[in-house]
Specification:
The longest helix has about 45 residues. Helix 2 packs across helix 4 and helix 5 packs across helix 12. The strands form 3 sheets. A 6-stranded parallel beta sheet has the order 2-1-3-4-5-11, sandwiched between helices. It has 2 domains: about 100 residues, no CATH class; about 290 residues, Response regulator (Rossmann fold). By secondary structure, it is of the alpha/beta class. It has 12 helices and 12 strands.
């Protein structure tokens, strides 16, 4: 083979020519792919632009109702109606889904096959703006709620779409979530109003699990918190306690209101004086955390006449109280009785095992999903609050009131 010199070129010049040729070929491929993608994009834009015209004044085929379409797409009857009237309140994705559903149902009817083939999605997220730093307790709650939602989705033909970091739903990153789902289930005691309004502004039905918002037509599902704290307080009163403290969640939450109501009702019925100094809480979402329980417990122990029993709004908070009492040299239950709420996985493994109230979060998820499906079918539930049963679980963290020294 002749050398590079035989062609009057150095090795370096030949290499430059090779690189130049390669780059020219790559530019040609990139230009072709760009133009090809641009054509596809232009076609998509034209399709979307024509979409509104296709829906305007649509007459449904004989035998197909708004309810048929709503069931197939997984939206409310009113949303279908707005889509058919090209309302700006309905997204293009939903409008296209309605159009596709009409065509698909018509084809199925022609084949004599009435079964729906579209499986809509149900969104599940926290009801507060949580982030990566979400507490362990919230992860457990969402996990158990999701299990219940999944059971009902499987029965009804829906697909659950969990979204854990609900703070992202307020950003552009969250738009695909809203475009994909037919309705949303929000789980948590502290309800983020901004997130709730974002969901409602998109004409999506929503059900809250745990918390509740008075004055809004948003249904909710939760434990019978008032009954639960009532039973715990009565249990402590029956053991002889009269100085019973409540370390509650944030005062702005509906669940905290319910738990406080149960606590006060039991005290009043038993003729026990209510001491406001024994009712402690911290507002804001941090009020659910262990550090808040630590501070409130330290405040109670600093009282001139400290409590002989402490009722915490959650097992996580009660576990934090265990640590504070241990550091202060107070024995459970010999010196101070302790009770929690929820009967989380760790409650029976504490030392001593925690007396608490058992709730069924899987049942919460199932009940919320059933309500959401009813709303998608056109049923109006308003601001109803559905309370599910609770169970008092007595373990070794509660005992008789200690005898006062010096008697």
């Amino acid at each position: 083979m002749p050398g590079y010199a035989a062609f009057g070129q150095s090795r370096q010049e030949c290499r430059k020519r090779q690189i130049s040729g390669t780059l020219a070929g790559m530019r040609g491929q990139i230009e072709y792919r760009f133009l090809h993608s641009a054509k596809i994009l232009a076609t998509m834009v034209r399709t979307i632009a024509r979409h509104g015209e296709n829906l305007r004044g649509v007459k449904l085929p004989t035998g197909i109702s708004l309810q048929d379409i709503a069931t197939a797409v997984g939206v409310s009857v009113s949303t279908v109606s707005r889509a058919l009237n090209d309302s700006e309140r309905v997204s293009l994705v939903t409008k296209q889904a309605v159009q596709n559903a009409i065509e698909e149902i018509a084809r199925q009817r022609e084949r004599g096959d009435g079964r729906a083939t579209i499986r809509p999605m149900i969104g599940i997220t926290h009801s507060h703006p949580s982030g990566i730093e979400a507490t362990r307790g919230l992860d457990v709650i969402l996990e158990q709620v999701l299990a219940g939602v999944e059971i009902e989705c499987l029965r009804a033909g829906y697909i659950p779409y969990p979204w854990q970091q609900s703070r992202l739903l307020g950003l552009p990153d969250g738009e695909p979530f809203f475009q994909a789902v037919s309705g949303v289930i929000m789980s948590g005691g502290l309800v983020g109003r901004d997130l709730l309004e974002q969901i409602r502004s998109r004409d999506l039905p929503v059900v809250i699990i745990g918390g509740h918002v008075s004055g809004l037509d948003v249904p909710s599902v939760g434990a019978d918190n008032q009954r639960g704290t009532y039973c715990l307080t009565r249990h402590l009163i029956d053991l002889g306690h009269r100085r019973i403290a409540l370390v509650n969640g944030p005062s702005e939450t509906y669940t905290s209101f319910e738990k406080k109501a149960g606590y006060l009702t039991a005290l009043v019925e038993a003729g026990v004086d209510v001491d406001p100094a024994l009712i402690r809480w911290q507002d804001g979402f941090a009020g659910f955390d262990a550090p808040a329980a630590v501070r409130r417990t330290e405040e109670l122990l600093a009282l001139a006449n400290p409590p002989t029993a402490v009722l915490y709004a959650s097992d996580t908070m009660a576990e934090a109280g265990y640590r504070v009492l241990g550091r202060a040299g107070r024995r459970i239950p010999e010196d101070v009785s302790v009770a929690g709420f929820h009967d989380d996985r760790n409650a029976c493994h504490l030392d001593p095992p925690l007396t608490t109230v058992r709730v069924d979060r899987i049942a919460w998820g199932k009940a919320a999903a059933i309500q959401l499906f009813a709303m998608l079918a056109g049923r109006r539930l308003g601001g109803t609050r559905t309370l599910l049963p609770v169970e008092l679980v007595i373990r070794k963290s509660t005992g008789p009131v200690p005898e006062r020294k010096g008697r």
